[in-house]
Amino acid sequence: MSKETTSDKKVTKKADEKADTVKKASSSKTTKKASSKTKTKTKKTDVVTEVDEYSTGNQAEVNIGTIGHVDHGKSTLVKALTGTFPDTHSEELKRGITIRLGYADTDTRYCPKCTGTDKWSTEATCPKCKTKTKVSRRISFVDAPGHEVLMATLLTGAAIFDGAILVIAANENCPQAQTREHLAAMDAVGIQNIIIVQNKIELVTEAQAIKSYNDIVKFVKGTVAEGAPIIPMSAIHGVNLDLLIETIENVVKTPKRNEKIDSRMFVARSFEVNKPGTIPEELLGGVLGGSIISGILKEGDDIEIRPGIRTGRKVEPIKTKIVSIHAGTLGKVKEAKPGGLMSIGTDIDPAITKADSLVGNIIGKPGKLPPVIESIELAINLMDFVVGLDEKTKVKNLAVGEQLMLNVWTAITLGQISNLKGKKMTVKLDRLVCAEKGTRVAISRRLAGRFRLIGFGIVQ
Ligand SMILES: Nc1nc2c(ncn2[C@@H]2O[C@H](COP(=O)(O)OP(=O)(O)O)[C@@H](O)[C@H]2O)c(=O)[nH]1
Ligand SMILES: [Mg+2]
Ligand SMILES: [Zn+2]
After folding, report:
1. Backbone phi, then psi, for 94, in 5-degree steps?
2. Which run of H or of E encompasses 417?
3. Whose CA is nearest to atom 13 of ligand 1?
4. Which CATH number is associated with domain 372-459?
5. Do domains 264-364 and 372-459 have the same CATH topology?
6. From the CA of 135, how far away is ligand 3's center (Å)?
7. What is the DSSP secondary structure assignment for residue 372, as one 8-state letter?
């Protein structure tokens, strides 16, 4: 089974295309240097245009996750917003679910002539009056997996969310198992900005729509989504898309970024982009995908990756250089700032990065990363009920020696409780992680055959 996903493919394809164009350029010239202007085929219009090798487009400013029960319309909503259906990988299509995180970017745009909700769209010309629209900002949508075994993937992705859209189908009872589970994950990771989309509205009667609405209001009461806007939509027909975009603009504001503070990128994917049989001189170094959380990263920067390479319980930080940066669906950029997903080409051995082996690492400037720790002290906040089990199962007290699964930013590790006192515990970790005081950690416990989210902790 291939582990490659939509976003891998995109990056891989881009890297290949770039490598191709660079190769062509260098062979057609006497100098070895690639021309800074290369012919690039733009996908959307299918015309060949002269473009700069580096993209001059706007980088995405925020990441918004889609969450909710399988089949409620998350991927269809991302398609309506961005024009790209994020489940294009054949394995995913076969299984009908998003196995790993996929993403797609879009510009939110407004019409200078229309007013109120009417002015919002993602189109270059206003769908209502055909006036040329203006770009508000670029947003990256991260599409969550819909299947219950993939909770750990969702928690990993949530580490890079600035906000989330909870998709709930109006033609089913609320809450469904993953509706509850995914919302609890937002609670555990601390995602505050939530928008609820009541989807498939065209399939129900008005009375059913009102009942579904009331069920949603009741369900989110007391959760992080209490009071969140609820937008009735038909994602498949793009109904109320303008209202959703307006709501996104109001609810998920671009966080204030400080480019002077230490640069940090969370690694959510890692891969090798070389085709089998590539000759050693043409091998590209390992690629890391994820999101910058603070500061900026530039091509040519010296970086450190922590915890780094693991051998048993030992880890060794990796020191390398940024060879290239691809920002989201924009393409190659010279520097990247927080927001959106990006991949970073390095000069490390691609064998080290292949098959997501560096997921959970943090990238930053040498010597500036949070410490690598073997045991973690947490202030505990347990939920009342276990998430993901259909019956209302109470969360029992923790016990010394118990095994837990912890999500620390994008890192996942098992660990044993070595000390427990009141609302504080120490967990001895199986895998070393980077963390610092105040980091929010999701806590899961094995119940009924798999790990279930039971609460969160704050690093002391
Ligand atoms: N009737 C109707 N079907 C929808 C709507 N949105 C999505 N669907 C369908 O619901 C199914 C699941 O959608 P998908 O986006 O894959 O759901 P996901 O599992 O949450 O990502 C697909 O067959 C979609 O075509 C909608 O607004 N109305
Ligand atoms: Mg999907
Ligand atoms: Zn208009």
Report:
1. -60, -45
2. strand 411-421
3. 73
4. 2.40.30.10
5. yes
6. 13
7. E
